[in-house]
């Protein structure tokens, strides 16, 4: 049993091209991930296979080749651009005599470096513990031994069982603390809902320019960099939209192809902002040759977190890197804005984005002139006041309340459902 070496900064990268579509990964994106983790690449080993090898993921010959490169280059770590099973990871470590990390472990490491807030750190730790817990079973078989000898025999707990128990206890503790965070976020959302403040959530592939866009719109000064997963901790800011009023803009973590499930589960409280949003601003790096695949990857994650039904507006960003594109609004067959071409870095097309956003949000608003008889006035007027949707009110000579209200379509539908059919009789056409 060799010692497990700590992850170093010199790495041999392994990227395998598979004929199966589901196993496919991008090499240039992998190199960006490695660079974002602060690791220098000594050599990239590539190969082709029809399907993963059960023992080494790569073939036995390729595994021997990787081990030879590690010895000759003095690498500290081998990083795979694929998800390895615990057994495959362990077998490769035995062969290469150094630490082996898969794509999931690499992303987790980047997240650990980027987390700034208490909540973000808890979420990353939870994801890491869930990932490590699967590695304890086969990766630490030397810990199965119990102590022997006079006075030490007995059905005691093995070291592996102790580690598993400690991991379970820590995971439960983190989940309890994250539950509190989730409740606090829910209270904030309820308060915004009561105040009729729409929420706009920025989503998109990692490094699409979401934080730059966020800073351009809100002047927030959020950290933005040309690297993967520059933003981890969600930031909320208030903005004002013409004809809509105040709105909340939320900057969220970037998505990536084959985002680890442990991360999606751990960041549930954060991603709730996306689920509960009134509209999503889906920021796309229009200068990326594979932006269509990136859009597809984001849709997959949105489906995974049950946010795929939230209305979305595409923001085609980074047109400053394209020669033939100018800022414009694209509309669907009904004339509704579906995409806006902008450059957040240069500040080009931001006014068009505001116009499209206002148009989309305003289309979800309804405005009614109501005549409410005296017997219904107290309760209904109180409801409208709580919702802060009254624009004007007066009384006619018969004592009827004449009131103009403006609110989200979804809230009007809820009121109609609660008050019954009589509610529609109050509308003055």
From TrEMBL:
Q: Which GO terms describe its molecular function?
A: GTP binding; GTPase activity; guanosine tetraphosphate binding; metal ion binding; ribosome binding
**Annotated residues for binding of GTP:** 204-211, 229-233, 251-254, 317-320
Please state where this protein is localized: Cytoplasm
Name the domain of life. Answer: Bacteria
Indicate whether Transport appears among the record's keywords: no
Q: Name the principal localization, coarsely classed.
A: cytoplasm
What are the protein's UniProt keywords?
A: Cytoplasm, GTP-binding, Magnesium, Metal-binding, Nucleotide-binding
Membrane-spanning segments: none
Q: Where is the Hflx-type G domain?
A: 198-365
Mind naming one GO cellular-component term on file for this protein?
A: cytoplasm
Which residues are noted in the entry as Mg(2+)-binding?
Answer: 211, 231
Cofactor(s) needed: Mg(2+)
Please verify whether the record's keywords include Cytoplasm.
yes
Family of this protein: Belongs to the TRAFAC class OBG-HflX-like GTPase superfamily. HflX GTPase family.
Q: Which NCBIfam families match?
A: GTP_HflX, PRK11058.1
What job does the chain carry out? Answer: GTPase that associates with the 50S ribosomal subunit and may have a role during protein synthesis or ribosome biogenesis.
What subunit structure does UniProt give? Answer: Monomer. Associates with the 50S ribosomal subunit.
Protein name listed in UniProt:
GTPase HflX
**Which species does this protein come from?**
Vibrio aquimaris
Name of the encoding gene: hflX
